[in-house]
Amino acid sequence: MGEEIEFKAYAPGQGELLPGHVVEALDPSDPALFIDDLVESLNLRGFEKRYRRRGERAFPPRMLLKLWLLGAVVGVYSGRELARRLHYDLRFRYLAAGLRPNFRTINRFRERHHKDFRGVFLQTLRGAQSMGLLKLGQVAIDGTKIRANTSRSKAMSHGRMVEAEERLSDEIEQIVAQMDELNDAEEEEHGDDDGGGGLPEELQLREQRRERIRAAREQLEKEKGDKLEATHQKSFADPEANMMKTEGSLQYCYNAQAATSADGLIMANDLTQKANDYEQLEPMVEAIETNTGQPAGIVLADHGYLSESNLEALERRGQRALIAVRGRKSSRWPKQPRTQRMHRILRLPWAQQRYARRKTQGERPFAEIKVRQRFRRFMLRGKTKVAGEWDLVCWGFNVMALLRAQTA
Length: 408
Known about the structure:
By secondary structure, the chain is an alpha/beta fold. The protein has 15 helices and eight strands. The protein is flat and about 100 Å long.
């Protein structure tokens, strides 16, 4: 009989004499280490000033910010999931440094500081500029539809809103009439004695529902104006989200915008409730100059941003641009003068060579955000909060781009 094969010692229940540091288990190129150094270098006064000196000591905002940033990098956007990761994921445990906030604390931080994410996004951009990154010679602007935290089952059409309001008003009138009859009968029997008690629950619920429907109807009428139809819908869960076509169907979405530099950094972002892109071109061009302190050399954009007024606005600003003139379904020659001129420019070899980079430069961030970062749906509701969430996601994208640049 041969010798017994020996393996390395393996004792699952054996503890260590001296506990190891969590960082020793992480790879030196792990994003958690880069995020730790980055956040420690930022000015977080905007976050800290929202806390009070009185009461129980709060969790450090820089720690919670690191958790959310790593979550945006690895594709975790649920406060409950982040809280669970603090028990078994070494990257999150390292950033939390032994602290374990519950999911309510983690979620409240994101809601409370949704406006502050813009500040750290801009600080990171300026840091990239100081490193010699953020090349402005050629900037691509594009947009994508991202689903809102609601669904069509939580919506109602304008025609049904009108019917529901009328029905609830009739029901409220009937309940009030019954109350008046009951009060008159009690006054005749017991005298005029106000026993209080407030409104009955069924009346309160109907009045609250009627007010929600009325607010949604008025907002829908304001948005659609003369183009309003009875079939147009509005969501009650997130009234600021609108129906947009995405992934082959109509869903409640927001239109997320991003301007990407030649070296792959998002230098400006925005969020709109409108499905079209052409109204976003000039604001995005202004945001590029505001965020970086200088204009883009040349702007690349697809056919969705084309309009004669946009070309005129860019001409006034002295901003060079290449914007596709013909869409996928159009082959007609343009009629307006500036559009004709853009069409002629795009036929030149140098313009074709530059514009050919638009697709990879402008659409790559959205591909990475939706696939690698796994962000396809907003978790917060309301345009202001959703815009802050978009800042966080774009910040996470830039962090990974900086990490790749640093290790290249």
